[in-house]
Amino acid sequence: MRALRYFVIIISFVSGAFLGELLTFNFGVRAIWGAAVVLALTVVLFRVGERRRLRKS
Q1: How many CB atoms lie within 10 A of CB 39?
Q2: What is the pLDDT of residues 12-43, one digit of tens each?
Q3: Which of 40, 41, 43, 12 is nearest to 20 (CA)?
Q4: What is the C-alpha to C-alpha distance for residues 1 and 39, in angstroms, rounded to an integer?
Q5: Alpha carbon distances (Å) from 25 to 4, 18, 22, 35, 52
């Protein structure tokens, strides 16, 4: 089970690097907005999860 978790993490990093390369190749410096959007969505999802967890307790 632990090996599967590590495999998913490694695949996530590899796919992120590949996607970043594609975005940089196609959009140049503007590709940073793709990373900014992903980070913003991550923060939003984290905040929603925290609020739900606090409501339950």
Answers
A1: 10
A2: 999 989 988 998 999 988 888 888 998 999 99
A3: 12
A4: 28
A5: 31, 11, 5, 14, 39
